Each structure stands twice: as C-alpha cells, then as structure tokens.
C-alpha cells in the first residue's frame, strides 16, 4: 500500500480523509488551514492511498494541542482506519511508520489519548496495548494517556494539572473546540443555534493556539462539552444527539 504524506506542496490537491469534498467546503478549508500552520512545527499527516478515512496524524508533543507534559515525545493526534479498510493491516502500517519516524527523529517515545472503553475519536486501548502501549496517566471521567517508550529509563508523560483541577465555568453550556477536526467548523455553529433556540446559555471557546490548548480543562481539545462545569462529552454532536442532551436537562 502506497503511503502519502501531506505537505504544503500537495495539500491543495490531496484530500484529508475525513472530509473529501472540494477545498471550498468550510470543513475542508478549516482543516487544511490548520494543517498549514502545523507543518513547520513537525506535524505529519500520513495516509494510505485510498479514498476514505485511513490515516495517522502526529506531532512533537511540545507542539501538541493537548494539555500534556511529554518532552521529546511524539504525540498522535489521530489514528483512524474506517471499517471498510479493517483487516488489511493498514493500522499497523500507519502506526509502524509513525514509530519508525519518531525513532529516526530521536524521540523518547510516543504518547496518545485513549479511554477506559472504546469511544469515538479516541485511540482503541485494546489495539494500542497490542502494539506495546500502556496507560501512564488518567483524567476524569474516562480519559487515559498511553505511551510507548523507546527507552525504559525515559521520562514518563503525564497530564497537566489543568485537567486535574476543576476550572470555573459560566452557567449553562461551555463548548471548547479547535479546527484540528474538520467537523467542528460545521457542527459548532449548528449546536450554538440550537442552544439559543431552546433558551439555553452556551459559551463557545474557540481554541486557536497550542498555548491555549495546553491549558485546556479537557484532555481532548478538539471538542469538549460541559454543562454547569460538569463534563458531558468529547464526541462531536449531531443535531439529534444535542437535542437529547437538552431534553435530558429539561431544556
């Protein structure tokens, strides 16, 4: 299987796996603009030469948009191989290339965000354990930081204190998001409009820098929804799912 690495030279003509429509689509445009600013920081977006979700995205942890401390580690933003490509060895191919590249760049190991049970947008813990990763830190309600050290004496990654301490939030919904995922650019405005229509307060916090992301109250900065300071979900919500969240709270 041919692997394609996205760069500033081929970004306009290559699709980004999650959203495959044209570059004028707001989802594609937001993600590609986000990628352009990360390439110089060492971000790697590697995909199989197929039309669909089959890619890995990783970056030196110092530049990761996540509240972790993992100096000299590589951090996996996303490893996604959709069901149609399962059983073909593509996950192994992509992750092994990440491991190889990280070693060649002198990294101490690799860190990745997972969860106690299999959840969307988070790496599958069972698979990561199979590949040699182990959980090194946890954060409520279900996040787990896993790592694969290349040296047994390497420093261990950990979550920053900001995810361990409850932060003051406004009454109502608080939604943190970035453009690291193309879907947020579509759904965040939709959810905001739905909340407004229901008379529910919603504060939208658009994370636009790694510094802001690294001080986030949630380990998953791409999308995290709170209500009255209580974490609800990291999964990007459809209109129907968000309507249920509102209904469950009598809104």
Notes on the structure:
With 251 residues, this protein is α+β, with helices and mostly antiparallel strands. The chain folds into two domains: 3-162, Aminopeptidase; 164-248, Glutaredoxin, CATH 3.40.30.120. The protein is built from six helices and 13 strands. The longest helix is centred in the C-terminal third of the chain and has 16 residues, at 182-197.
Produce the secondary structure layout.
Blueprint: E1 3-5, H1 26-36, E2 44-48, E3 54-60, E4 68-69, E5 73-81, H2 90-104, E6 109-115, H3 125-130, E7 134-139, E8 143-149, E9 158-159, E10 173-177, H4 182-197, E11 202-206, H5 210-213, E12 223-227, E13 230-233, H6 239-248
Parallel strand pairs: 5-6, 10-11
Antiparallel strand pairs: 1-2, 2-3, 3-5, 4-9, 6-8, 7-8, 10-12, 12-13
Helix pairs in contact: 1-4, 4-6
CATH homology superfamily name of the largest domain: Gcn5-related N-acetyltransferase (GNAT)
Shape: globular
Q: State the major sheet.
A: 7 strands, mixed
Helix content: 10-25%
Class from secondary-structure proportions? alpha+beta
CATH architecture type of the largest domain: 3-Layer(aba) Sandwich
Distance between the termini: 50 Å
Q: Over the alpha carbons, how many angstroms does the gyration radius reach?
A: 18 Å
Mean pLDDT: 92
CATH class of the largest domain equals Alpha Beta
Task: State the oligomer.
Answer: single chain
Count of alpha/pi helices:
6
Give the strand line-up of the largest sheet: 1-2-3-5-6-8-7
Return the domain count. Answer: 2
Counted beta strands: 13
Classify the beta-strand content into a percent band: 25-35%
Kindly identify the CATH topology of the largest domain.
Aminopeptidase
What sequence of helices (H) and strands (E) makes up the elements?
A: EHEEEEHEHEEEEHEHEEH
Q: Stretches where pLDDT falls below 50 for ≥5 residues?
A: none
